[in-house]
Write a structure and sequence with these properties.
Blueprint (H helix, E strand, L loop, with lengths): L1 H21 L13 E6 L2 E6 L1 H24 L9 H9 L6 H14 L5 H12 L1 H13 L5 H8 L4 H35 L13 H17 L10 H29 L1 H14 L6 H14 L1 H9 L6 H30 L10 H8 L3 H41 L12 H25 L6 H12 L3 H9 L5 H26 L6 H5 L20 H23 L4 H11 L19 H12 L1 H15 L11 H15 L1 H12 L6 H26 L5 E5 L5 E4 L1 H7 L12 H10 L8 H14 L3 E6 L5 E8 L5 E7 L1 H15 L9 H22 L1 H8 L1 H19 L6 H31 L7 E5 H18 L3 E4 L5 E5 H18 L4 E9 L2 E8 L33 H12 L2 E7 L3 E9 L8 E2 L15 E5 L3 H13 L3 E5 L2 H10 L4 E5 L8 H11 L6 E5 L4 H10 L2 E4 L4 H22 L1
Parallel strand pairs: 8-15, 9-11, 16-17, 16-18, 18-19, 19-20
Antiparallel strand pairs: 1-2, 3-4, 3-7, 5-6, 6-7, 8-10, 11-12, 12-14, 13-14
Helix pairs in contact: 1-2, 2-9, 2-10, 2-16, 3-10, 3-14, 4-14, 4-16, 5-6, 5-12, 5-14, 7-8, 8-9, 8-16, 8-17, 8-18, 8-20, 9-16, 9-17, 10-14, 10-16, 11-14, 12-13, 12-18, 12-22, 13-16, 14-15, 15-16, 16-17, 20-22, 24-25, 24-26, 26-27, 30-31, 32-33, 34-36, 35-36, 35-40, 36-39, 37-38, ...
């Protein structure tokens, strides 16, 4: 520690000696002390601060900020502190308050009264009333991986290189004066605090403090913003440092304001603006400056960088909408007391108004407050220079230098394996050159020019971006040529009316052309163009430049309409909420391997960054990446976005298109791909069509593009569309227009009806609407958005119900006057209403009854198919290709079987087909069976399945409770990549909570209610490739409701979820405990069996015979009771497998009963059926028959035969 102190003293002594030597020629001799000198002015001594001390403070402050930025980059702050991100984002927006705002606002208020107010009023109006514009900018920026304002405009208008280069040049031209303003402000503050006066005379460069400030800020910007190549990666450290700077400058400004308020009083602060309004009104150029500040809030490169590029979540704008305006309001209010007190303090001191914030505490001897004010002003300048330099370096690199270098073949950059170093070097050199250019402008400009005039000049330049940005977000007809023409016209007029007169005032150009016009042409005077006089120069230049910009933008866009490619690129900008990827197969004309894409990206971004990005893509997509495989469209789009973050969207598109041009796809590959997809599509479509065609409601489904993709027969019958009019891909607008022309949509303009309904569907809001048709019938329409985009609408005829309702209403209206006469009519109306309600309830359950009634016919063919595929898989000598084919067929049938079983189970639950058998269930036994069932799956996936032992007992249905817990554990294992799945139970008063914890991806808050609906799955894909049906949780919810249990979900995104079931606690009673049945063992039989199979479906009998024969089991086949009795008499079977539903109203129980009466020692039997009714289960259990559900799973059938075989052997031993 002593050595550190000695080192600090040694370096401070060196800096002090250097500063004294380099500044000894600036004037009078000063008595140098450690931190201040005594200076005589106006008869009183004013303590000053040595320049070397200020420089040391600046270096220490910059080092502190760098440490803070380093901490923010190295240690992730937001995963555990989500509340911090919107606060940091909101405070970082205050980078808008540069040294102009810190110093120049007070100067503008002293010189022009309320002239300081527009720079605060503009952004305040945007965030309070125009927040929709900012929200749309942020949403588009995130979706398109925008890296800068040039990238945004170029991407909107067809990813034009020329447009991006023009925007970059304009941004540089606008930024150079603004950067110079920051250097001037810091140099001015050092001069005031160290010398007590403002040094107006020019000094050599190496004695100019502004030169060293420029180098220091440039170095800091390089350290902050050019450590990584991907400009779309969020600079967490930089944002944290900028937010801290915003706090520092606010504290400094408010501290000076409070001190000024204590000196001048509130009355003096309030009297100043009131006097200005009464005497002069609003200052000249007030509205023009407000408009420029409004546009600058999203057009300045630093504001676009912080507000759009660095915004991680559009929801952060909800906080920024109030925090940022409150910040501006607080600063603008404290300007008034500083002006009131600063005006008195500066009398006789000949100090410029811009330094009042510094001079006020200095003149009163408050040295600590003066240092704090200096740190605040330096902080304001530092934040602006850093963010603007980072943003401009990205634009120059992506849109000017790198495209030019890639075109120059002499550099041979296309042969370099890694270009990331080149990109970083270009950005660092750009920042350094920008600092030198801004310093040169500072040296060349007039020293008496106030800060506000420099800032407003830059504001007017960047305001030229506003028409292209706003028009690009809201006008479909805007074209690339129109945007280019508007920018050129507006920028040219800005140069002529504002920049050139400013340079003339600095002595760069003669002054006579301003007053007389070029070549003596009076109507071309830059401050009175076309004889428009009476306005201040800023308002005049702003009016003409924006008029030229907007006029050229609109006129040229109307003259040269946007191309098809421009319209495609414009779609996500116009409707970001409905954005889908633009690229199609035709945009990538050929085939490319994954390793080629990775090599291209590595050359630009760097190998480590690309490896990390591809790993993130693999985790998000849930797909493995094979470097030698052909890249799909999604990976191509991902690579383009990755490149766009480093070299811009236009350069990325050009590089990938050039790399992919010339290759093609084999016809055989395309045919194989289409054939495999079409098989799956045909099966799913057949199943869907069978369901849709047998319900009473009409159904229509449209996709996100508002085109028809599915419908049923009832829908066509309801609306009577002509033959051929309804087909897949038909625009739903055509169908609405057809109905409107027939009067189905009511009176009014037809196109208005169409637009109204299309807009409502695009918004994705659920609705319920009743329409009275021209024939008097009434249709109830219920619409609901689809999760992946699109809309589904159901149509129900409720005419009878509405007529009954109308009759009842009419009867009630006249009830008091005609009580006696209408008693019978009222009774009839009530009866009709009751009947109509019963009809409505019956219609509502039509789908459920249909599925339940059709269960046998649906499952019969699937049962036969699975038996045949199982027999095929056990065929001796089967080659590998055929075995794989059989496996795939069996998997497809199993998927269809699971879907149908889930639908049937849901329908039975809805129809009340389950009668729960409530008993006392031992949770320890249940948990043990669950662990045995899933332990193999968990171990195979490297997961820890932990089951907490318990002795608790509950009251529930043992089988339904097992189904619910099974589903919870199965889902947890399906979506957990690594970690633990925990199953346990805990007491909760008189209840028990069964909980399943996992460490998976969690469920987003907006999905938690919908996840229990039918066909709803979470957005996160299973890391193990499993795809659920979306029915498991819906069935669990129905089971829990049937049992009177409570289902609950708690989840933490990216950390895990807890599914729980709350059910009543039961006291332990060994006699009443219902033991949970374990899954049957599937071991071999150990005997030569002869089986009698009874089924009325010949196909199923043939499949059963083929499978049993493969297992070495002989069998007899029968289709009815008579054939079964004859076969059993001829040869006694070891066991009987009987279908329940047989022909001629016979049943499998009848067949088993007849055989039992004719055989002395009846063999064991089992029922194989698709009927899952509770009555059948109870009856089979009473008669001692096993029960197996269709479709038959080979493993379950094998286990059943083994069980019956053991029972048969037991009987033989007993008989013997």
């Amino acid at each position: 520690m002593p050595s550190c102190l000695r080192l600090a003293r040694r370096w401070s002594s060196r800096i002090r000696n250097w500063w004294s030597t380099t500044h000894q020629s600036r004037g009078g001799t000063k008595r140098v002390e450690r931190y201040n000198v005594s200076h005589e002015r106006s008869g009183r001594k004013i303590p000053l601060i040595a320049g070397w001390a200020l420089l040391l403070v600046s270096v220490c402050y910059v080092g502190l900020l760098f440490g803070l930025a380093y901490y923010g980059d190295k240690y992730p702050l937001y995963p555990s502190r989500r509340w911090l991100r919107p606060i940091v984002y909101s405070l970082a927006l205050a980078v808008y308050c540069s040294s102009w705002t810190f110093y120049g606002a007070v100067g503008s208020a002293i010189n022009g009264g309320l002239a300081y107010l527009p720079i605060y009023l503009g952004p305040l109006l945007l965030f309070v009333f125009g927040i929709g514009l900012m929200r749309k900018l942020v949403l588009v920026g995130k979706q398109q991986n925008i890296t800068s304002i040039a990238d945004f405009i170029a991407s909107r208008y067809g990813k034009s290189h020329g447009l991006a280069a023009l925007v970059t040049l304009i941004a540089i031209t606008a930024a150079v004066p603004y950067l110079a303003l920051q250097f001037k402000a810091v140099a001015m503050s050092i001069s005031v605090l160290s010398e007590g006066s403002l040094q107006m005379a020019r000094v050599p460069i190496f004695r100019d403090s502004a030169f060293y400030i420029a180098l220091l800020l440039a170095a800091f910007a390089i350290l902050f913003g050019t450590r990584r190549i991907d400009a779309t990666e969020h600079h967490h450290g930089m944002m944290l440092a900028i937010a801290a700077e915003s706090v520092v400058k606010l504290v400094a400004f408010v501290a000076v304001g409070i001190y000024a308020l204590s000196s001048s009083g509130i009355s003096a602060a309030i009297a100043l603006p009131l006097a200005e309004l009464q005497t002069r009104g609003l200052p000249s150029g007030f509205f023009a400056q407000t408009l420029l500040a409004f546009a600058a809030t999203f057009c300045l490169t630093r504001q676009f960088q912080v507000g759009v590029v660095e915004c991680e979540n559009p929801e952060d704008l909800r906080h920024a909408r109030w925090i940022f305006p409150a910040y501006l309001l607080l600063v603008s209010l404290f300007v008034l007391p500083i002006v009131a007190a600063g005006t008195q303090a500066a009398r006789g001191a000949a100090m410029p108004a811009d330094v009042s914030v510094l001079w006020l505490p200095l003149a009163q001897g408050k040295l600590w407050l003066a240092v704090l004010a200096y740190v605040g002003g330096f902080s304001a300048a530092t934040g602006m220079v850093i963010v603007a330099s980072v943003a401009l370096s990205t634009m120059v690199s992506n849109d000017l230098i790198m495209p030019a270098l890639l075109r120059v073949r002499a550099f041979r950059l296309e042969h370099r394996a890694d270009l990331s170093g080149v990109v970083l070097a270009v950005r660092r050199i750009t920042i350094f050159m920008l600092a030198l250019l801004a310093y040169a402008y500072y040296r060349a400009s007039t020293r008496d020019q106030n800060l506000a005039s420099i800032g407003l000049l830059s504001f007017a330049a960047v305001a030229q971006f506003a028409p292209a940005i706003i028009g690009g977000l809201y006008w479909r007809g805007a074209s690339r040529i129109g945007a280019l023409s508007g920018l050129l016209a507006g920028f040219a007029v800005w140069i002529y009316t504002l920049l050139l007169p400013n340079l003339s005032g600095a002595g760069w150009l003669p002054l006579d052309w301003i007053s007389a016009g070029p070549f003596g042409i009076n109507w071309l005077r830059p401050h009175a163009l076309f004889q428009l006089q009476g306005w201040d120069p800023l308002t005049h230049g702003t009016f003409w430049s924006l008029l030229a910009n907007i006029g050229a933008y609109i006129f040229v866009s109307l003259r040269f309409r946007p191309t098809v490619q421009e319209r495609l690129h414009a779609a996500p900008f116009l409707e970001p909420e409905q954005h889908r990827p633009l690229a199609s197969v035709s945009e990538w004309p050929g085939r490319v391997r994954v390793e080629d894409l990775r090599a291209i990206a590595s050359r630009i971004v760097g190998e480590r960054s690309v490896a990390r990005a591809f790993d993130e893509y693999r985790e998000l997509s849930g797909q493995s990446i094979n470097l030698h495989a052909t890249a799909d469209r999604n990976l191509l789009q991902f690579t383009e976005r990755l490149l766009a973050g480093a070299i811009g969207a236009a350069s990325a598109r050009r590089m990938l298109t050039s790399a992919l041009r010339g290759s093609g796809m084999d016809l055989s590959e395309a045919v194989a791909l289409l054939d495999e997809a079409s098989q799956e599509l045909r099966f799913n479509r057949a199943l869907l069509s069978s369901t849709l065609e047998n319900i009473a409601q009409g159904i229509s489904v449209v996709d996100a593009e508002m085109r028809l993709v599915a419908w049923n027969r009832r829908y066509l019958e309801m609306f009577g569309y002509p033959d051929g009019m309804v087909h897949i891909g038909r625009s739903v607008a055509d169908l609405i227009r057809y109905n409107a022309e027939r009067g189905e949509c009511g009176p009014g303009d037809i196109e208005r009806h169409v637009i109204k309904r299309i807009d409502y569907m695009r918004q994705g809001s659920p609705y319920v609407f009743e329409r009275v048709r021209t024939d008097g019938s009434i249709i109830e329409m219920r619409g609901r958005p689809l999760p992946a985009g699109g809309f589904v609408t159901t149509y129900t005829d409720i005419t009878a119900y509405k007529h009954a309702e109308t009759g009842l209403r009419e009867a009630n209206e006249n009830l008091e006057q005609r009580v006696d006469q209408r008693t019978q009519e009222l009774s009839a109306a009530l009866g009709a209403q009751h009947e109509a309600m019963q009809q409505a309830q019956a219609a509502n359950q039509s789908k459920t009854r249909f599925l339940a009634a059709a269960s046998h016919d649906l499952l019969q063919p699937l049962n036969a198919a699975r038996l045949f595929t199982s027999a095929l898989r056990h065929q001796p000598g089967l080659d590998a290709e055929s075995s794989t084919l059989a496996q795939r067929i069996d998997t497809a049938f199993k998927a269809a079987e699971d879907l149908i079983e889930s639908l049937l189970e849901a329908s039975r639950l809805d129809a009340g087909g389950y009668q729960p058998e409530i008993s006392v269930v031992a949770l320890g036994e249940l948990f043990g069976s669950i662990k045995d069932q899933f332990a193999v799956v968990a171990n195979a996936r490297g997961l820890h399945l932990r089951v907490v032992p318990t002795r608790l007992h509950v009251r529930s249905d043992a089988q339904l409770l097992r189904r619910i817990v099974q589903n919870f554990v199965s889902n947890a294992l399906r979506y957990t990549r690594e970690g633990t799945v925990l199953l346990g139970a805990r007491r909760d008063g008189d209840n028990v909570r069964i909980e399943v914890w996992d460490t998976g991806p969690g469920v987003a808050p907006e999905q938690r209610a919908a996840i229990f609906d039918e066909f709803q799955r979470g957005k996160q894909a299973s890391p193990w490739g499993e795809k659920g049906l979306g029915l498991g949780l819906a069935i669990c919810e129905r089971m829990a409701r049937l049992l009177g249990h409570t289902l609950d979900l708690r989840s933490w995104p990216e950390r895990g979820s807890v599914f729980s079931l709350r059910l009543p606690l039961a006291p332990f009673n060994a006699a009443s405990v219902s033991h949970v049945r374990k899954r049957p063992e599937t071991t071999g039989f150990g005997l030569t069996a002869h089986v009698l199979c009874i089924d009325n479906d010949h196909t199923i009998l043939e499949g059963m015979a083929a499978l049993l024969t493969r297992w070495g089991i002989s069998c007899d086949l029968a289709t009815n009771v008579d054939e079964a009795l004859a076969a059993a008499t001829l040869r006694r079977p070891d066991m009987i497998l009987a279908d329940y539903h047989l022909d001629e109203n016979g049943t499998g129980l009848d067949a088993l009963a007849v055989i039992r009466t004719h055989l002395a020692a009846p063999p064991p039997g089992a029922l194989i059926t698709a009927d899952n009714s509770t009555e059948l289960k109870s009856r089979a259990r009473e008669l001692g028959y096993a029960l197996l559900r269709k479709p038959v799973k080979p493993a379950a059938l094998r286990a059943l035969i083994a069980q019956l075989g053991r029972h048969a052997r037991t009987q033989q031993v007993a008989v013997g």
